[in-house]
Amino acid sequence: MGIVSEEEAIDELQKLINQVEGPLKKTFERVHQGYLRENLSRFLKARDWNVSKAHTMLLDCLRWRVDSGIDSILSKPIVPSELYRDVRDSQLIGMSGYTREGLPVFAIGVGLSTFDKASVHYYVQSHIQINEYRDRVLLPSMSKKNGRPITTCVKVLDMTGLKLSALSQIKLVTIISTIDDLNYPEKTNTYYVVNAPYIFSACWKVVKPLLHERTTKKVHVLSGSGKDELLKIMDYTSLPHFCRRGSSGSSHHTQSVDCFSVDHPFHQQLYSYVKHHYETQGQGEPAKQGSFHVGFPEPGADGVQIVKTIESEMHNLENRNGLGKPVDDRTVSP
């Protein structure tokens, strides 16, 4: 009884989703970009191949996209440009290149992101724009170039500078991660954690048992900057800057253009793409405008428990010495 194979599960979900019409159908076309079965598979994986739960999840995602106007978010520039620069300097994320298999490599400065130069809505807007640009522009382009579907990316998480003060950012980080979990499931093939200080390894030890095995298998905590391990899957030119020199920082503290900087080609191309699509609407030069608001989903019970566990562990660490001690050359046990 029930679905006996992954292919049959995809077939069943496809039959259900074929029934959607109007705006939901249109926005789903934006989601799958012609790679229908690969994208149905993502939602099924996120719900352990339960067709009914995957169907509900996908419908909720499509309704969120329609209600929040996600299809038009790539024509909503963050202006003025100085504000966008502030966002980039405090929300450290960028794309450094591609793996040898053609997957985009996204770098995230977890430890040094401050999220203190704009409202939460701008940070969420920027994050979703990067997601949509990845899914609508980068991945389809790489799929065509490689002659096969490429629907995921890899992420390199730089923990340089991670401190107890990160507690103040947990609410925003939780909002962003919940948006990803519910609406962009299974888009990351592997997470590589580098430059991990003691505070990370302590929190990872207590959080790991709370995560789904599917998630923990994706997380690889590398020794030091992770350069040697990452060079096994990508060329040196695609290494994030903090893996090359073993440290990270915003665009104002580096001599060369790093992948976090607004001046990096990725961010220049993304911003130009968004501005161009705004201007093609016939509205001319974008004036200063309010941020693009989306509905913030409530984290599930598991997410709430994880946040409470992290907060508890960090408060425990607060009462000890050595919060800023870096991990030594040994690989942190993932």
UniProtKB/TrEMBL annotation:
Name this protein carries in UniProt: CRAL-TRIO domain-containing protein
Xref: Gene3D superfamilies: CRAL-TRIO lipid binding domain
Q: Where is this region: Disordered?
A: 315-334
Q: Which organism is it from?
A: Brassica campestris (Field mustard)
Tell me the domain of life. Eukaryota
- By its UniProt entry, which PROSITE patterns does this protein fall under? CRAL_TRIO
A Pfam family hit? CRAL_TRIO_N
InterPro entries associated with the record: CRAL-TRIO_dom, CRAL-TRIO_dom_sf, CRAL/TRIO_N_dom, CRAL/TRIO_N_dom_sf
**CRAL-TRIO domain location:** 80-240
